[in-house]
Specification:
It is a single chain. By secondary structure, the protein is of the alpha+beta class. It folds into 2 domains: about 5-240, Nucleotidyltransferase, domain 5, CATH 3.30.420; about 245-415 and about 450-485, ATPase, nucleotide binding domain (Nucleotidyltransferase, domain 5, 2-Layer Sandwich). Helix content is about 35%, strand content about 25%. The protein has a 7-stranded mixed β-sheet with strand order 18-19-17-16-22-23-24. Helix 9 crosses helix 14, helix 10 (about 300-310) runs antiparallel to helix 12 (about 365-390) and helix 12 crosses helix 13 (about 405-415). It is globular and about 65 Å long. The protein starts with a strand and ends with a helix.
């Protein structure tokens, strides 16, 4: 029997890592998931890192598991995607020195040394903070000299995984957008930004377009992964960009990508920025397209953790059932989501409900309050994008595992007064996007197996306008509480 063609997609997120076997039609054939092992670095107040070689061994084992699930397949191509802002430092003899995830803030104490932050925003499309790679490199240079002295170059995490397969170092444009060292409008590394951070150009690999073949898999790696040596490695990109691709949007569409965090993006054909510096602008993996973004911050992770508290042994279907049956909505929450109009994040959060505790207060009330917090945060960020770049369509696209809740998709439609559309396979959006990227690289016409679109129509506008006001009061309460504590 002839083997079925398939692709291998490595998806390295913030909390976990997945290896997915997917066919050219976007159908998932096998998937294996694990948690990334992080370590604290005592030399910095807010830093975290991972061992790249340990992660590579984990990826290999997950890959073998996913391939076993998939059965008799021929892997034609491999692609990678990862959390944005994270990097891996590479030393002499191709040794992976240290991995710095997006949640590593070892560069925070050097933020004040950057004097012209407005200029950085003009070039990079994002206000400079320790979230971004340049400050991570600064932290290593200033306090981890043993590592710095060995440094040959650095890569995004997805580009590092590609490098492990091919031995060819390249940096993809959507990932380079997250470094503070890349001129987004010019689509190139910026000597001006390199000088600002005191970084030599020797550390910067050649730039590479997504959906291009970067090379063949190394023979020894093919053997370890049980993959044919004819497999090619295709340049992927940032996890948000691959998820966006899975929705197959048009120019000027808005896409909500819900995972650990929730980027809300508009696809535009030119480089635009916000005079108030509230937004990000990145290169997309599609040539000639930019991703104009506001981000609601930690959202899906909040839902996941509260499920573990209130529904540790139940499925998401049970939650949906209880949410539908229980109409009580007097409980409100503010759980640290982000709004582009606010300069400072809210570090204190919680739930507010009438006292004494009513018999009507159930566990589903807390989940509903969490989902309302997510929906209203998305709405506030959507409002900023619409104000700056406009949006005339009567719909938005949505994707990502954080939107598995049909109840949440309906809430978002209600509060932004737009249809929320998801495509078949939206929960595995990065894997589906990876399949489409591989198709592009291999010149295969993209045709997903199921083109079904599920739509949530906006309802009950007056009701949700009132709830929106209550949520704002709750958010302001926790904002003031946090200010008092600080």
């Amino acid at each position: 029997m002839q083997k079925k063609d398939a692709y291998l997609v490595l998806d390295i997120g913030t909390g976990n890592v997945r290896v997915v076997v997917v066919n050219p039609y976007g159908e998932i054939l096998g998937v294996a998931t694990g948690d990334i092992v992080y370590h604290r670095d005592d030399l910095y107040p807010d830093s975290i890192y991972f061992d790249p070689e340990l992660l590579w061994q984990q990826l290999k084992q997950l890959g073998l598991n996913a391939l076993k699930q998939a059965g008799d397949v021929m892997i034609k191509a491999i692609t990678t995607t990862s959390q944005r802002e994270g990097i891996v430092l590479i030393g002499k003899n191709e040794k992976s020195l240290i991995g710095l995830p997006n949640i590593d803030h070892r560069g925070r104490e050097w933020e004040h040394t950057l004097t012209d932050k407005n200029r950085v925003y003009q070039l990079t499309g994002r206000y400079p903070t320790s979230l971004f790679s340049a400050f991570k490199l600064t932290g290593i240079r200033e306090r981890r000299t043993a590592i710095w002295d060995q440094l040959s170059f650095f890569l995004s995490i997805s580009d590092w995984a590609e490098f492990k397969f091919t031995g060819i170092p390249k940096y993809e444009h959507s990932q380079a957008s997250e470094t503070l060292l890349y001129d987004v409008a010019k689509k190139d590394w910026s000597p001006e930004l390199q000088n600002m951070f005191g970084l030599d150009e020797k550390y910067f690999p050649a730039l590479s377009d997504a959906a291009t073949i970067s090379g063949k898999i190394k023979k020894e790696v093919a053997k370890e992964w049980n993959i044919s040596e004819i497999s090619v490695v295709v340049t992927g990109g940032g996890d948000t960009q691959l998820a966006i691709k899975s929705t197959q949007p048009s120019m000027d569409d808005i896409v909500i990508v819900s995972g650990t965090t929730t980027p809300i993006v508009k696809l535009v054909d030119s480089y635009i920025t916000d005079s108030d510096e509230r937004t990000w602008t990145s290169r997309d993996i599609e040539n000639g397209r930019f991703v104009f973004e506001a981000n609601a911050g930690v959202t899906g992770l909040n839902y996941q953790r509260l499920k573990e508290v209130f529904y540790p042994n139940e499925s998401y279907e049970i939650i949906e059932k209880e949410l539908t049956e229980n109409k009580q909505s007097s409980c409100m929450a503010s759980l640290g989501s982000l709004i582009a109009t606010e300069r400072k994040s809210i570090t204190t959060g919680g739930f507010i409900f009438p006292a004494p505790v009513s018999h009507e207060l159930t566990r589903s009330c807390f989940v509903r309050a969490t989902l309302l917090d997510i929906a209203f945060s998305i709405a506030e960020n959507y409002k900023v994008l619409k104000e700056i770049a406009g949006h005339q369509a009567d719909y938005v696209w949505a994707c990502g595992g954080g939107l598995k809740s049909k109840y949440l998709r309906q809430l978002i439609a209600n509060v932004i007064n737009k249809k929320v559309q998801v495509r078949h396979g939206f929960q595995q959006s990065s894997a589906v996007g990876g399949a489409l990227v591989c198709n592009d690289a291999l010149n295969i016409t993209n045709q997903l197996a199921n083109i079904e679109v599920e739509v949530a129509e906006p309802l009950d506008q007056d009701k949700y306008n009132e709830l929106h006001s209550e949520w704002k009061k709750t958010r302001n309460f926790f904002k003031q509480t946090g200010n008092l504590q600080n």
